């Protein structure tokens, strides 16, 4: 739990947040890593979709139920506590948005576990759709309103452009996490669904799969920057939210390079990547792919280039 570095992680997402709501958000991040490790990735229900669905439904109900309740499941009991913390600190709208994002995350994990149980490797397009949810990015970014004690007006938050920006930020962070976590997950036999294994399953050799995954990530990031930079007039709350989407992207990248959760498997100052080679962690000044056109073969995200 300590090795997740959750406080460092979420402090980078919301660097201007006041302490009390930020700590509440950080508590959920610690909870999320614990639940992900113990229930989603390992343990008996991680290969039993029906049982996971029941477990997740109990946790979700504990979050969405106002007031202190008694729950046998310790994760549900903790989630009920977190829900009360959020309601005391944030607007009902911000809390409801988080509740809905949390449900989407658990649904995405259920899809992932169903694939695992069936021994099914998703197509690239299906994987990206699944990963938008299963990576936990939706509730993590939804926490920005709670941590910052803001409420983005609905007409702005649910506009196609802002929805696209949110999804792009989620996917960039998710693909970065696929890189950060690969060595750890390979050691624990959890690489059955990862951007690299998906591409390899389609016939690409490992080194090309790495390059293609990074090219996809970079193209999405470039699109994010272009769309965000031409947003035009926006409320103070939306500007704050969009700024923190960017903080989340870079914060997740920095955290992933430093977190003991992943670096414990590293040699020196590098990490062992999908090709089995240890690479130094460096920043690049230019993307592998900056084309301003939707990637071929992934229609589920093509609409981002239409907003």
Any low-confidence stretches, pLDDT <50, length ≥5? Answer: 265-272
Specify the CATH class: Mainly Alpha
CATH topology: Farnesyl Diphosphate Synthase
State the major sheet.
2 strands, antiparallel
Number of H/I helices:
14
Specify the overall morphology. globular
Distance between the amino and carboxyl termini: 40 Å
The residue fraction in helices comes out at 55-70%
Q: What is the spatial order of strands in the main beta sheet?
A: 1-2
Question: For the record, what is the CATH homologous superfamily label?
Answer: Farnesyl Diphosphate Synthase
Structural class: mainly alpha
Q: Can you give the mean pLDDT?
A: 92
Number of beta-strand segments: 2
- Rg to the nearest angstrom? 19 Å
**What CATH architecture would you give?**
Orthogonal Bundle
Strand residue content: under 5%
Can you tell me the number of structural domains?
Answer: 1
Order of helices and strands: HHHHHHHHHHHHHHEE
